[in-house]
Amino acid sequence: MASNPIRKVIVKNLPNEWTSDHLENFLEVVTSLMMKANCIQTFCDVRHAALLTLEEPVSEDSVHEANQDLVHLPFNEQTLALEAVTESTCSIVVHFTDLNLSDDLVFYYFANPRRSGCGDAEVERCEMHPELSLAVVHFTLPEAVDGVLAKEAHNIKKDSEVVKVEPWYGQFHRPLLEELLKKTCSPAKPPVPPKPSVPPPQQKETIPKTFASHSTPPQEKPPLLPKPDLSERPSPFKAPGEYSSEKPAQEDPEVKSLREELEKLRLDRRKVESEEALKAQEELERLKRENEKLKTMVTLRLIVPSYQLRLLRKFAGCCEGCQVTLLEQEEVALFSGPTEECEQAMTQLMKQVQGLADDSLTVPDATLMLLETTKGRQYLKDMMQKHPNCSAKVQNSCVVCAALKEEDLRAFKEEFESAILTKTCTVSFKVSLLPQFQNLKIKLEQDYLVLMTLPSGNSNDLHLDGLASDVELAAIEVEQFSEKNRPEKTMFEIDGAMQANACRKWFSKELDEVKQIIRQNGDIHHETTEDGYILEFECRLDVAEDVMDKLSYIKDNIVSINVDLNKEFPLYSERALVVNGLHRMGVKKFCSHLKDALLQQDVDSLGDFTLPAKYSLPRLSLGGRKSGKEEAPRGSHRESKSHHRSSGGRGRRHTGQRYSSRPSSGQQPSVPCTYTFGNTSITLKTGDITAEPVQAAVNVVGRDLKLTGTALGSAFLKKNPTLAQLLQANSLAAPQQDKGCHLLKTPLARSGLPMSMLYHAVLNKMPQNAVKKAVKQLVHQCLMLAMQQGYTSIAFPPLGVGRRFGYGRYTVANAMVAVFQEFLQTYPNGMQNITIVVYDSSVVGRFAEVFKQTFGGGPQAVSAPAAAAVQLDYGPDLFSEDYFPQDAFPGENLALDDVLQDELPISMPTPPVTSDEENNDRASSDNNDSDVQLEEEEDDEVPDLSEDPKGRFEALICTANAEDCQEVIDVLLKELKTIFLWHETLRDQDVDTFRKLGTFVIQDISQKALTTNVHLSLSQKGLRLCGQKDSVHELLSMIRDKMFNHVQQQSKKESQRSDKLELPRYWKLCQKEKSGTVSYEKALDRWRKQVPGLIPVSAEETKAVLKLVESTWEANKAGAGKDARNLAHTSLQVTKVERLENPELWRDYCHKRANLLSKLQSRHATKAQCTPVENLPNSRGPLQTTANIARKSPLSRDIHPEVNEHYLFHGTKTATLLKIYEQGLDFRVASAKTMLGRGVYAAESSTKADQYTDPKQARTSGHQLTMILVRMLLGEPFIHTDPNPSAFTRPPCMKCSQKECACTSARLFDSVIDDSNRIFREFVVYEQNGCYPEYFITYIRK
């Protein structure tokens, strides 16, 4: 069983010198008990014991454990001890200073609850100890202590001091009280003489803090009172009765007053208690009497209908022997009283009920519902008041009534039946159209005693049931209301599907509100949003006008912007890119992107486009070839011979005319055109092959046999939806075919198509060199099958020239016409009519040119040769999967978007027909190093198609704010240009490399451009690629890959020519060599014979160098910087330009350049060149020297921009020129204090190079100085931006950019560029063969 919590602890055996701080600190350190602050209680002057109040209650075991910890701690031969206070207190200690205070006065004061606050408790006894100035008062209840202590002050005696009151704990106070009483009664001890000792030094006596409220120096206290005679002293412990019986001779007035007041309180209390006891006794006796009475009483129940009880109300007052209660609501009669009397009263009531006249009235359901309403019940009530001898009630499906007499009942029935009326009102429109009828119903039912029933379904009848007079009045109001609220039919319309979509999207909330208004006042008949927004509704005229105002507001706030994009993109190339791009991307996708872009401008919009057919992009112009000797003349013998051979001897010499995807009217015959070949007519026309009146036709499908996979198959399927099932069935019934190209046939009996047989050419993607043979075999099979089945007319489409298969148009046209010739030569009467139906004008142009070349200048009769057995040989089996594996073709990369695949996209002076010899020439030309001459295109040459014959090109944009129109147009044009006219430019240096790729490599690139909708154009700025960003980057990546492959081939060639030294062709040393290469020994011998080794340059070169010096001279920086000390000139005058032709230095330089070219393969797996300087992070931009060298300048010869080879200026003193002639620029002789370490320094500005041509301390003016224009190989440069540079011994690591590192398998940069925001940018290489001093420029300062 758990003990009570301990809140107070007694500490015993305390040393006298201890203070409260000693005790508190000691107990906290030695034990785990925590005391409340300032809660240490002592008793009188006793210091060896104290009463402590704990911070938190603890168990008795915890106090016991703490006591055990103190057992072995001696203090002045005493041991501290702890004792738990377990008892509660019912007593108090009263400290007083008035010695005249008697025990009676104390007793009566604390016994009075009004003065002491003791409550209902009584004083048990009072102990007086005047010698100790205290008294102990004992109460009967512990709550009295709390009440006494709660009172602020206690004045026992008037005009006396306030006494001090504290709780009494017997465990603590009783032993101490006895100890004090013993000390008071014992005689005083004589003083003990002090021991002799050395007197201590005079110190100020300190008085320790004790548990008492104040302390005095220890001294012998005089007795407080003389010793009383204990034998004669009365006992302090008195019973309460003793104080009332023993009265002194002269009683203190205050004691008397207190005693009388206490007796009065006790008398009042006894009087109240006696009165309450008397009342309780009387109530008990009353309850006993009632109980006895109830034992002889009964209560009987009789069920009687309420309408009958209402007539028998007088019966309750006639019964005297018992109490009768009629409860009409519960339909019960209660009889209370003696049993016999109650039974007699019940019998009498039953007889009266049986004597009533009773009947029921059958009425309509609506009338019953009406009578059950509040007004109906009131009507029945009024009727019963009018007929007091009658009563009625609605029960189940009728009205039951009763009366005292038959005559009364008959009169009540007649009046009731005549007062009820049912009437039907008909309106001329559907009541459901007007929800206000519901409000009218509520109003009429509130005003009149009627029930209005609204019609359901298609009925227009209203039913009114109720009191006849009220029904007539309600019918009049219904007619007036229907006439006033007759609905009118109205229609609202917004033209255009996009405007309708905008209406639903932007004004959906307003539309919902309008439709809610209509439904509340009428009905919505029709709502459609297909080609526009149409809303047909019917409602009241005033509501319809309000609704139309709201709808007109919505319509007025939908602003439509029609942008004519033909005028915005007048250039053919730009319009073609935008139109084709929209076709490829999809109008919905672009409109979604445009919407997001406008939302960023806080403009909500919807858009759509009217697109024309796809355009054919303008192609890059290509001139002739430039050989090593001289430019080959156009129309050479080889070209003429090849053309003559391919055209059967009827060819003519081509003199460099252009071929384009838009054939001229002079070359193309009119379409349709018919050629007669023997007994057969061959017709070329445009139109719909599905409507061609022939016996057999040819369709094109893929290997998946899905007609929807091709445009032609979709056209046939649209005419005959069952064609797909027929094709699948014929495919299963046909012999097992391989996975290559083959034919399937489908009979067309009663199919809705004009032909009887349809041949399906199952095609597959294949290399272009195999297309011709495959098409020949397919066309030949179609002709043979048609002839065997007895058909005399057949129609062909251009096989495979569409988007899916991408066969070349020229190739297909040549193949088909060739098969027609061979077939008709073998079978002159095999066919009467062969028709080629073409759907695209550009394809018609290809076929028309082939027809013209094959059959002559115009439609005519061509005599067929005599019939002969001709064996058609198409080579190997082209239609097997083994010959064309599926994974050999990169998917859609070979497909064309209505663009000629094997047609030359670059104008070339070669005929469009490809022969075997020409294929060999093409293969050899891919490895030809001669430059291709690209002709620059001018915008003036591009046709301005402001009125495009292809169709309208418009954008329709809808917005909700007219102020946003211009912003919408600006964003539209910006997004079109950003997405479809993204452009990248291949700089001049890269164009030079591009020229070296070869004709047919450029042809493949141009063909890829047409496929991906990218326009290539050549201008003075370089090769410009324009189109969609991804396509431009893809094509640019392809170009760089081709250039990279070319660089690899060049590096291989240079490595193979290690025994030969290839000098620049403009050098004097190789002017006698036709090939431009000379043996190293021979070149070195020629060099040594030249004195001093410098060669005067031509006037063209001098002009180019002079222009470069002037364009890079910066007069405002001529004297800037510490290296320009003592310089005051503002310009230079070049007097002479010479060239250094040192074969030894050139060989080392070429080896370094070849090494950089070979590193490109390992350093850049997909890049064809090093990173251009302008593209490096933190770079200022392109080099000034390179930027100021024109593309056709002599200084652009033999420059390799792919390895960052540039011309730069180097300044040196005249004394070092002879060493430079022979040894070149040696980085080892550079000063160790240079900014970026020992290296060869160069600058892009001639101003910077001029600062180093003479000593800083001895500047010269008017004397000739020399600066050098050097070739420098920067390779992959490192951009140095630290304003406090550190000296390099070599370029830093490309991985960590540190000059000293522990990186493994890491390459180094090839050069260092100081671009740290200094006045001039400097370029440094750390190898001697990294630069070649080519031009020596002699000048004077001015």
UniProtKB/TrEMBL annotation:
Protein name per its UniProtKB record: Poly [ADP-ribose] polymerase
Gene3D superfamilies with a match to the protein in the record: 3.30.70.330, 3.90.228.10, Leucine Aminopeptidase, subunit E, domain 1 (3.40.220.10)
Q: Where is the composition biased (Polar residues)?
A: 659-672
Keyword list, A-Z: Glycosyltransferase, NAD, Nucleus, Transferase
Q: List all Pro residues biased stretches.
A: 188-202
Organism of origin is Littorina saxatilis
Q: Region Disordered: what ranges?
A: 185-257, 620-672, 905-948
Cited PANTHER family: PARP/ZINC FINGER CCCH TYPE DOMAIN CONTAINING PROTEIN, POLY [ADP-RIBOSE] POLYMERASE
PROSITE patterns, sorted: MACRO, PARP_CATALYTIC
Residue spans of biased composition, Basic and acidic residues class: 244-257, 627-639
Main localization, broad class? nucleus
Q: Could you tell me where this protein is found in the cell?
A: Nucleus
Q: Name one GO cellular component term.
A: nucleus
Residues annotated as domain PARP catalytic: 1097-1342
Compositionally biased, Acidic residues: which spans? 928-946
